[in-house]
Amino acid sequence: MLRLRLRRVGRKHDPSFRIVVTENTAPLKGKYLESIGFYNAVLKKREVNHERAKYWLSKGVQPTDVVHNILVTEGVIDAPKIAVHKRSQKQDQGQEQEESEDEKAKVNSEEGGGGEPSEEKSAKEEENKEAEEVKEAKEENKKAGKQDKQDESAEDEKSETKE
């Protein structure tokens, strides 16, 4: 399968790339069929041969996400950009929780709050409360454990100073 992807040609600490048509399994610095443009990351310059890009896209060549975004900015294709930055796991989890809460709120507002029977709601609410209480108890135990250790060390110091 052919792909449109970036091939680095710049020197150290000066990233510059060619936009090339190459086999998907080919090594990054390997042979390529055609170069259809370039992208200089430092100077933010880019140039794409629109005709050749459209030709290869019509043949079924798939661009990588970054090349897709470059083609969108150059006006070669009309499509939304693709998010290519990596997200941390914490951000992903936070977003999933927000989405699930939003979906629950939508369902409840659309159905007038009668999405689940009241018995199931109360059981789930109780489980959530119990889980929160367990977490709080663990945190308090940790704090108390630290305080106990501090108290013991303070008592040891006092007894040593008296002797």
How would the blueprint of this fold be written?
Blueprint: E1 2-8, E2 16-23, E3 34-40, E4 45-48, H1 50-58, E5 62-63, H2 65-74, H3 89-110, H4 118-162
Biased composition (Basic and acidic residues): 118-152
Organism: Candidatus Spechtbacteria bacterium SB0662_bin_43
Keywords: Ribonucleoprotein, Ribosomal protein
Describe the overall structure.
This protein is an alpha+beta fold and 163 residues long. It folds into two domains: 2-74, S16 Ribosomal Protein, Chain: A (2-Layer Sandwich); 98-150, no CATH class. It is 53% helix and 17% strand. The protein contains four helices and five strands. It has helices at 50-58, 65-74, 89-110, 118-162; strands spanning 2-8, 16-23, 34-40, 45-48, 62-63. It has a five-stranded mixed β-sheet. It is elongated. The N and C termini lie far apart (83 Å). The mean pLDDT is 80. Belongs to the bacterial ribosomal protein bS16 family. Residues 153-163 have a biased composition (Acidic residues).
Key descriptive features of the protein:
2 domains, 163 residues, 5-stranded mixed sheet, Ribosomal_bS16_dom_sf, Ribosomal_bS16, S16 Ribosomal Protein, Chain: A, structural constituent of ribosome
Oligomer: single chain
Helical segment tally? 4
Poorly predicted ranges? none
Query: For the largest beta sheet, what order do the strands appear in spatially?
Result: 4-3-2-1-5
CATH A-level architecture of the largest domain: 2-Layer Sandwich
Which class best fits the helix and strand makeup? Answer: alpha+beta
Tell me the series of helices and strands, N- to C-terminal.
Answer: EEEEHEHHH
CATH class wording of the largest domain: Alpha Beta
Distance between the termini: 83 Å
Major β-sheet annotation:
5 strands, mixed
In CATH terms, the superfamily of the largest domain is: Ribosomal protein S16
